[in-house]
């Protein structure tokens, strides 16, 4: 249990989300992008919720996601950048759609912002190279991605940006689960395969990246937002309270403090 999290019911009390964030959460629930139940994660944890960003494939849903990213960036006074970078492959539509939405919502501030993404394999013909879109050399870059689990993929993206001469100034993700990152320790499995053994450390993957690179990392939604957003939503009052308690208990067991 996380001793850094207050052991009371305060996180179950109403605390309204901003309208744009409440609308985004509602869309996630309506289209089962965010589901509640019992889910086994790659980390072997049993989670009471699951977020599948791959379901934002329809035009109206992608617009909703891009708008949520854009509002997260617009409300941040720290992020000052010239390029949105989407790591291949999932980050590609995120970067392109969010770039367009930022220009629509704030043309004075973001009308000249560019996007870029990397190829999985370097192109050896035509214009060649590893980057599609804006050249990164000398540019201030913000990465947009769906979630950060272990941080491996985002570190690869950071290395690509640095290799191309870009300057990483921030990261924006769709969801921050606000939980400790499992430390992958290998141990022999029953059939000779390695299994993951979790070491208890009160540090998230996002927290590690923040400390390692010294950059701001923002999230459209956090687990705390999800808990707060369930107040008064659907079902009976008892069902709602039970769900919030399950989420809160998961938060106490695996959670880290908000930055």
Structural class: alpha/beta
Overall outline: globular
SSE pattern: HEEHEHHEEEHEEEHEHH
Task: Tell me the Rg in angstroms.
Answer: 19 Å
Question: Major sheet: size, sense and barrel closure?
Answer: 6 strands, mixed
| Helical coverage, percent range | 25-40%
Major beta sheet, strand line-up: 5-4-3-6-7-10
Tally of contiguous helical segments? 8
Termini separation (Å)? Answer: 19 Å
Q: Which parts are unreliable, with pLDDT below 50 for 5 consecutive residues or more?
A: 1-12, 185-200
Q: Approximately how much beta-strand content do the residues carry?
A: 15-25%
- What would the average pLDDT be, to the nearest integer? 85
Number of strands: 10
Describe the protein in words.
This protein is an alpha/beta fold and 259 residues long. The protein is 36% helix and 25% strand. The protein has eight helices and ten strands. The chain has helices spanning 19-30, 59-74, 91-105, 107-110, 152-163, 205-213, 223-229, 237-254, and strands at residues 34-40, 46-51, 83-86, 114-123, 129-133, 140-147, 167-176, 185-188, 194-197, 217-222. Helix 1 runs antiparallel to helix 2, helix 2 (59-74) packs across helix 3 (91-105) and helix 7 (223-229) packs antiparallel against helix 8 (237-254). The longest helix has 18 residues, at 237-254. The two termini are 19 Å apart.
């Amino acid at each position: 249990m996380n001793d850094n999290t207050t052991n009371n019911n305060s996180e179950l009390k109403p605390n309204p989300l901003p309208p744009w964030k409440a609308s985004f959460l509602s869309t996630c629930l309506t289209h089962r992008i965010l589901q509640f139940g019992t889910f086994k994660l790659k980390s072997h944890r049993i989670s009471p919720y699951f977020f599948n960003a791959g379901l934002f494939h329809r035009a109206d849903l992608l617009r909703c996601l891009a708008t949520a990213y854009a509002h997260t960036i617009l409300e941040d006074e720290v992020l000052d950048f010239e390029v949105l970078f989407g790591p291949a492959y999932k980050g590609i539509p995120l970067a392109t759609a969010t770039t367009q939405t930022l220009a629509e919502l704030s043309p004075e501030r973001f009308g000249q912002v560019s996007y870029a993404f990397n190829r999985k394999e370097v192109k050896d013909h035509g214009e060649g190279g590893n980057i599609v879109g804006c050249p990164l050399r000398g540019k201030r870059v913000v990465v947009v991605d769906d979630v950060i689990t272990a941080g491996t993929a985002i570190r690869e993206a950071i290395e690509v940006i640095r290799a191309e001469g870009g300057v990483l100034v921030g990261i924006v993700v769709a969801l921050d689960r606000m939980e400790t990152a499992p430390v992958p320790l290998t141990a022999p499995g029953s059939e000779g395969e390695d299994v993951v053994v979790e070491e208890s450390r009160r540090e998230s993957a996002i927290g590690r990246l923040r400390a390692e690179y010294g950059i701001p990392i923002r999230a459209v939604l956090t687990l705390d937002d999800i808990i707060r957003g369930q107040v008064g939503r659907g079902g009976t009052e008892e069902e709602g309270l039970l769900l919030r308690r399950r989420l809160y208990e998961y938060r106490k067991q695996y959670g880290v403090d908000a930055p």
